[in-house]
Amino acid sequence: MKASSALAPALRDTARILARVAAGRSLADELGPMAGPDMETPRAALIDLTHGTLRRYGRVQAIVRVLSRQTRQDALVEALLWCSFYALESGRYAEYTVVDQAVRCCALLERWTAKSYVNALLRGYLRERGSIEARIGSDPEARYQHPGWWIDALQAAYPHDWEEALAQGNAHPPMCLRVNRRRARLADCQAQLAAAGMPSRRVGADGLLLERPVPVERVPGFAEGRVSVQDAGAQRAAPCLDLAPGQRVLDACAAPGGKAAHLLETEDIALTAVDADAARCAHIARNLDRLGLAATLRVDDATRLADWWDGVPFDRILADLPCTASGVARRHPDLKWLRRASDVPAFAQRQAAMLDALWRALRPGGKLLYVTCSVFPQENDAVVDAFVARLGGGALRLALPDGAAAQWLPQAEHDGFFYALIQRQA
To answer: What pLDDT, in 10s, does the model give residues 212-257?
Structure first.
């Protein structure tokens, strides 16, 4: 059990953040300015409470609805109840501590009149757990911790795997390293990790999956550019692009640069990495410098070819396009609640337009790898198949070189990604 002294301030800071997320703000944006004078909670505690609550968001909302007789809630008080129910269920604190500190937190939030209400709901939950579980058991959002439209979409697309996909979407994400084969050997890096108390196992050609996530600054060889953090699913890009020495390669939408770096580690290619965000391009440059790699970086919209392209076709294009990010939602637990069903066709329309634009920069016989971190077929197979059909005989979808399925759903060792390799015929 954790000490109770800092729980009330932590609940206060968490409630403020969650209330803003519920109103549509990004959790990453809210966690960014944590050095402000009103944020005394340590980062680790704040991440635990915010991420833990949002992973159970459907459930804690349902509990409040069952227990409360108020039809309209004060946003801060409701957010306090959400994170308090998570704290109760986490096992990290004694039950009486959570109740006491949540009541104290009402004063810190200047919601003095809510003390009795918060006390009554938390104690009511502790008394009536069994009946509450029975009452919320038929609520899909409470059971699966995803919005109803998301649950329906996965059930329709993956009738045999949808429940596991939803469960993985609520799990803690894995931490995988990519070994820079230009600076280190995979076996040596694995031995160094083991010596540092970080056991790992091999995944793919260059990956090491850690048994437990650790802060990146503790990873042996990271600062020296021997390893990088990259999900095993994202590491499929380099081998699936079918690279060869000397090729001209475009990485469109390149930030944050993990795939670009892996391409350069894999083959001696001439890489152009394009991204519209200047700050994210600067991050790519720093990352390549750490790894001892070089590429041409352009701050531009990759689809506006006239603004940056010299007219010489590329042999390979990595089109890692914007998407719902539904395959990596467990890394951003607010994302699934901020997304709307209408976002899926909107992204699909944007992806189709970007694919049309990038195709013009590919040489005949060249190959484009279409990538998303989405699990929704409407953004994946539907976009690719429609594109190939639209071009008639001008485009051919190829089997992936690694022999694996195009769609990977999130699993214990990797996130959810989609890959499709398309060759230009003329």
So the answer is: 999 999 999 999 999 999 999 999 999 999 999 999 999 999 999 9
Sign of the alpha-carbon dihedral angle for 47, 52, 55, 58: negative
DSSP letter assigned to residue 275: E
The mean predicted confidence, pLDDT, of the chain is: 94
Cα–Cα distance for residue pair 250/313, rounded to 1 Å:
10
Per the DSSP assignment, residues forming a β-bridge with 298 are 274
Three-state SS letters, 197-252? CCCEEEECCCEEEECCCCCHHHCCCCCCCCEEECCCCHHHHHHHCCCCCCCEEEEE
The two tokens of residue 34 are 């944590």
**Residue 344 and residue 331: Cα distance in Å, rounded?**
19
Sheet holding 207-210, edge to edge: 200-203, 207-210, 176-179, 227-229
Q: List residues with catalytic annotation.
A: 373
Buried b (16+ CB within 10 A) or exposed e, 136-148: beebbbbbbbbbe
Residue 120: how many CA atoms within 13 Å on its side-chain side? 11
361, 304 contact by CB (below 8 A):
no
**How many other CB atoms sit within 10 Å of the CB of residue 96?**
11
3-state secondary structure of 298: strand
- CA dist 341 and 54 (Å) reads 19
Cα 60–63–67 angle (5° rounding)? 145
CB 389 within 8 A of CB 415: no
- Residues 72-84, mean pLDDT to the nearest whole number: 93
Kindly write down the DSSP assignment for every residue of 4-35, as one continuous string. STTHHHHHHHHHHHHHHHHTT--HHHHHTTTT
The dihedral over CA atoms of 280, 285, 286, 289, expressed in degrees to the nearest 10, equals 160
Distances (CA, A) of 317 to 2, 320, 362, 365: 51, 9, 7, 12
For residue 377, the model assigns a pLDDT of 98
- What is the CA 168 to chain-centroid distance, rounded? 12
- Under DSSP, is residue 157 helix (H, G, I), strand (E, B) or coil? helix
